[in-house]
Amino acid sequence: xxxxxxxxxxxxEGYIPGVPAWGVTGxxxxxxxxxxxxxCQMCGHKGLDIRPFxxxxxxxxxxxxxxxxxxxxxxx
Length: 76
Ligand SMILES: [Zn+2]
Prior knowledge:
Order of helices and strands: HEHEEE
Strand order of the largest sheet: 1-2-3-4
Bound molecules: zinc ion
Largest sheet: 4 strands, antiparallel
Helix content: 25-40%
Structural class: alpha+beta
Number of strands: 4
Radius of gyration: 12 Å
Distance between the termini: 15 Å
């Protein structure tokens, strides 16, 4: 799965990249920290990038961890 695919798939489900500026997504800080401390299961790279998405109509938050080295993505 690539960045482009993830954005497209999430867009079809009503999600847009990012988190609200007012920070209703209480999980984000913890998820970001989790990513920073995670190791990629595909290539062993330490430190993953968080890819947050937000559904504005449902006020629903989802986040994925992306490996900056091999591009592997998994939902947190
Ligand atoms: Zn990796």
